UniProtKB/TrEMBL annotation:
GO aspect biological process, one term: amino acid transport
CDD domains, A to Z: TM_PBP2
Protein name from the UniProt record: Putative glutamine transport system permease protein GlnP
Lineage: Bacteria, Pseudomonadati, Pseudomonadota, Gammaproteobacteria, Oceanospirillales
Homology family: Belongs to the binding-protein-dependent transport system permease family. HisMQ subfamily.
Species of the source: Marinomonas arctica
Molecular functions per Gene Ontology: transmembrane transporter activity
Calcium is among the record's keywords: no
PROSITE patterns from the UniProt entry: ABC_TM1
Amino acid sequence: MEKQSHLLLWKAVFVLIIIGLGFGIYAGSKSIDYTWRWERIPQYIINTEATTVRSPFDGSATIEKGKLIVTSDYGDDPLVIKKFDNLLVSNGDLVFEGDPLAEVENWNIGPLTWGLVMTLQLSVVSLVFAVVIGLFAGLARISSNPALRYLSITYIELIRGTPLLVQIFIFYFFIGTVLDLDRFTAGVAALSVFTGAYIAEIVRSGIQSISPGQMEAARSLGMNYVQAMVNVILPQAFKRTLPPMAGQFINLIKDSSLVSVISITDLTKAGREVVSSTFAPFEVWFAVALMYLVLTGALSWAIQRLEKRLSASD
C-alpha cells in the first residue's frame, strides 16, 4: 500500500511538471508580439475547399434529372455535370466562358501531408538498404579476412567522421552527376550509406556479445560458418540489438529532413513552402514537429511491441 501511494505521488509530480511546462510555453507565447493563426494550418494538411466547375464556352444551362447540361452557342459538345454539391446557375441561364457553374466538395491531401508521404517513402527505402549495408559491413567488421575487415573499418570511420549534410551534397552534386542519379535516388543513397555505418557497429557489437561457445556448439553439430551465423548467432544478436537499432531507425526518419537541401519536397521543405505562403512560421513548424513525432512515435511503439513478443518467445 505504501509503495503504491509512493508511485502515485511521483506520478502526480510528473503531471505537475508537464502542466508547469505547458503553462510556461503558453506564458512565453503571450509575452511576444505575435498573432497566432492556427486556422490557416488545417488546409495544408487536408484541404476540404470546394472545387468550382466553370463553363468552357458560351451557352445556356439546363437542369434535367439532377444533371446540369451546358449547351454551346458554337456547336461544341455539351458539358454534362452529373455530380455537384452546390449549383450556382438556374435552369435556362445564359453562361459565358469562365462563369462558375457548380461547386464540388472534395477532400484533397495538402502539401504538408504530401511532404509526410515523401518523408515516409525516403525513410522506408533508405531503411531497407541501410539494414542490408549495415549487416554486410558488420559481418565484414568481425571477419578473419584482413581485406574485408579493413574495408569495413575504413567505411565506418569515414562515414561516421563526416557530417550527413556534406555526404548528401557529395552524393547529389558529384556521384549523382557522374552516375546521372535523380534527387530521390541520391537522397536515398546518402541516407542508406550514412545509417548503414551505424547499423554495422550495432550488428558487430550484437554478434560479439554472444558467447563464443554458441558458435563452437553450432559448429560441433555439423553446421558451417554461414549456417551457424544465420541459425544461431544472428537471431540472438537481433534480440539484443533491437533497442539501439530502433533508435537508429528513428534517427533515420529525423535525418531525412536534411534531403530538403537538394530540393526533395519532404516534410521539412513542405513546411518551408507553407511558411512562405502563410507567414505563420510558429504554427507551421509546430505542426511539422507534431507530424514527425507521429512517425517516430508509431515506429517506437511498433518496436516495443516486437520486443515484448520476442521476449515472450524466449
